[in-house]
Design a protein that fits this description.
The protein has 280 residues and is an alpha+beta fold. The protein has eight helices and eleven strands. Residues 1-76 have low confidence and may be disordered.
């Protein structure tokens, strides 16, 4: 069968022509029935009639279908989604893991903006934030903030990133909230510690260190509720703990939290987590 071809004419959207073959004709001769299909031999010694427009025997025809219904193997959409990220950002790692866990890897192009100047230029061309992550949808809309992007990816995947059950969904949101709190606290403390010594606020650093400790303890306490589950709560927890290993190794968050430590090591065996781990 010849390959399908994409054709555009007066139709408002591209169409795809798929060759179809007519149903076999049934002929009766001397009490016998035989079929004449598009090619081959119908009976011993009798060749199939040639294809031609004078009759329908062997004539292929086409069915016009919208290009949005391309079968598997046909070209992808012209403008796939794009996720802009930088390698070690925990905020960008969150949607990167979500994309993989939700089965969206083939639908989202990841763009690593490692160079700060390129990052600033590229992001400001699309929105005001100049921060990663940012998602350019295939409809051309520019989404910022990782929590907003997570909601969008959940919808794009048909709800694979949050549980369907109301109670389980609430647990996922609870864990996601604590892990997001931890991520913000770690980020602010890291930013403060990298200031010049004369500009640092010891009080702010201490406050965020205590907040992070409470978040570590809460994630250990909540673990029985989300152990073995993969959703945005557990994904955000992995991103936050991985960031702690990089920027705040002196927190020693594993100490006194054996269940959380074992859970983290197990989660890191998943491809989505291993492929996106921070490099330091």
């Amino acid at each position: 069968m010849p390959a399908a071809s994409i054709r555009s004419g007066s139709s408002p959207q591209p169409t795809v022509d798929f060759p179809m073959m007519p149903k076999p004709r049934i002929h009766a001769r001397a009490g016998r029935k035989h079929s004449t299909a598009t090619s081959g031999v119908t009976r011993k010694g009798a060749a199939q009639p040639k294809t031609g427009f004078g009759g329908c025997r062997g004539l292929a025809y086409f069915v016009r279908m919208p290009a949005t219904h391309l079968p598997q193997g046909q070209p992808r959409r012209e403008h796939p989604m794009k996720l802009f990220f930088s390698g070690n950002s925990p905020y960008a790692r969150r949607p990167r893991m979500a994309i993989r866990e939700a089965g969206l890897a083939g639908k989202v192009e990841e763009v690593n903006l490692a160079d700060p100047k390129e990052r600033l230029t590229t992001l400001l061309q699309n929105g005001p934030g100049a921060k990663v992550p940012a998602l350019l949808t295939d409809d051309g809309n520019f989404l910022i903030e990782s929590l907003i992007i997570a909601r969008y990816l959940d919808e794009a995947s048909g709800g694979k990133l949050y549980p369907k059950d109301k109670k389980e969904r609430e647990v996922a949101l609870q864990v996601e909230g604590v892990a997001s709190l931890l991520m913000d606290s770690l980020f602010h403390r890291s930013h403060e510690k990298r200031r010049d010594a004369g500009e640092q606020s010891p009080g702010e650093i201490k406050k965020e260190a205590e907040r992070a400790k409470r978040a570590y303890d809460e994630l250990e306490k909540l673990l029985p509720k989300y152990d073995g589950k993969v959703h945005m709560g557990s994904i955000t927890t992995v991103a936050s703990l991985g960031y702690a290993d990089w920027r705040h190794a002196d927190d020693d968050w594993r100490n006194g939290r054996p269940k959380l430590a074992a859970w983290f090591e197990k989660m890191m065996q998943r491809p989505a987590m291993a492929e996106t781990k921070p490099i330091f």
